[in-house]
Amino acid sequence: MKKLLSIVLSAIMAVTMCTAAALPAFAADPVKSPTAATLIDGKVTPTVNGENKQGVIYGPSSTNSNEVTFRYDGEGTLIGWETNLLDLGLVSGTDFTLVNNDDGSMTVTFISQNAIGKWNDGMVKVNALVDFDEEEPTEEEPEEEETTKNESSKSPSTGASTVAAASIAAAGAGIAVLAAVKKRDAE
Known about the structure:
Layout: H1 2-22, E1 45-48, E2 56-60, E3 67-72, E4 77-83, E5 96-100, E6 106-110, H2 113-120, E7 125-131, H3 160-186
Parallel strand pairs: 1-7
Antiparallel strand pairs: 2-3, 3-6, 4-7, 5-6
Helix pairs in contact: 1-3
């Protein structure tokens, strides 16, 4: 009988301690993959010479869901493109890449979660610089690169429930040990 009781109590203690060790895996907030978010359609503000005019069309790439190509399809002659990506604190090469294509279109690839978040929040603006032959052509100023700290990776909070559950598991193991000692002393 003593052997059976000690085996049962050992099994209870082992299960209790394994449960306590596994509890952090059941954290309250799920971990989100840095590549999980994609661009939401229709969240950009396209303008022509800084005004809300028709003519800028855009669409996502069929091969990369975080890549968007902008084209000018209106009257006048396209001179170039402007974006507010650097003004939003994004870093070229780290948060996004920008390519002016041979056909006059511009392709922006959003790399970081921070950049995708700015797009999805509707903060990204793309401006087509167009010469309508009635005004002087404007010269595109090159964008200056800024360096900022990328804070897009944050660990999930596990909450107080993990500590409470681990305490309960440890208390269960302690009670099992006390019961075994008391039973042994009684015999």
